[in-house]
């Protein structure tokens, strides 16, 4: 199934000049959402991961059902202060400043094979930081995947593991 018709674009969100690619329209359509999950499953399954990591917050949406389908665990990568208990963080550079992503300290074991998921890849900064965080705790990041990739922003160049997306848009 072609999923592109199920993605809504919203101009000037969250700020003027940004064209937002909204997956909520995909989520509302059961046949399209099921197809999305099955297409991502075909990408992820060959890597034989032990755990899926979803990036806050829309990365949780594909990661949770995919983990269930694969019979493996799922853990969340979140911004600072959003996870209970002890966390491990990784601070990364933004165009103007820094940001930090965190993982619960007991979420991964050394050597565990993980795939990292998000809804969209733009500049690649958050995905890169999430990969670095998982590696920092000793995980084997075998791949990363997104539903949507925005071409022309250099995101794929930031990723040093196999990467796949279900669809792409030129920006």
How would you characterize the overall build of this protein?
The chain has 171 residues and is α/β, with parallel strands linked by helices. The protein has a single domain, classed as Rossmann fold, CATH 3.40.50. It is 25% helix and 38% strand. It has a 7-stranded mixed sheet with strand order 5-6-4-3-7-8-9. The protein has a two-stranded antiparallel sheet with strand order 1-2.
Summarize it.
With 171 residues, this protein is of the alpha/beta class. It is 25% helix and 38% strand.
Mean pLDDT: 96
Per CATH, which architecture? 3-Layer(aba) Sandwich
Strand order of the largest sheet: 5-6-4-3-7-8-9
Low-confidence stretches: none
The helix count comes to 4
Q: Please summarize the sheet with the most strands.
A: 7 strands, mixed
How many domains is the backbone divided into?
A: 1
Which of globular, elongated, flat, extended, rod-shaped describes the shape?
A: globular
Portion of residues in beta strands equals: 35-45%
Helix and strand run = EEHHEHEEEEHEE
Q: What is the end-to-end distance? A: 23 Å
Structural class: alpha/beta
Helix content: 10-25%
Give me the Rg, rounded.
15 Å
Strand element count: 9
Q: Could you name the CATH topology? A: Rossmann fold
List keywords for this structure.
about 170 residues, alpha/beta, Rossmann fold, 7-stranded mixed beta sheet, globular
Topology:
Blueprint: E1 8-11, E2 19-22, H1 24-27, H2 30-44, E3 51-55, H3 60-70, E4 73-79, E5 87-94, E6 97-104, E7 113-121, H4 125-136, E8 140-151, E9 163-170
Parallel strand pairs: 3-4, 3-7, 7-8, 8-9
Antiparallel strand pairs: 1-2, 4-6, 5-6
Helix pairs in contact: 2-3
């Amino acid at each position: 199934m072609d999923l592109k018709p199920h993605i809504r674009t919203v101009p000037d969100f969250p700020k003027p000049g940004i064209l937002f690619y909204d997956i909520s329209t995909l989520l509302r359509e059961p046949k399209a959402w099921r197809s999305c999950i099955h297409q991502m499953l075909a990408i992820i399954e060959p890597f034989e991961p032990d755990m899926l990591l979803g990036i806050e917050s829309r990365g949780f949406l594909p990661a949770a059902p995919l983990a269930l389908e694969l019979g493996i665990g799922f853990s969340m990568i979140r911004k600072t202060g959003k996870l209970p208990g002890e966390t491990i963080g990784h601070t990364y550079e933004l165009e103007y400043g820094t940001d930090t992503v965190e993982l619960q300290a007991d979420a991964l074991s050394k050597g565990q094979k993980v795939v990292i998921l998000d809804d969209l890849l733009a500049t690649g900064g958050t995905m890169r930081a999430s990969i670095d965080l998982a590696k920092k705790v000793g995980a084997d990041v075998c791949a990363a995947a997104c539903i949507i990739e925005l071409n022309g922003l250099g995101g794929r160049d930031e990723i040093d593991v196999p990467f796949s997306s279900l669809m792409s848009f030129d920006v």
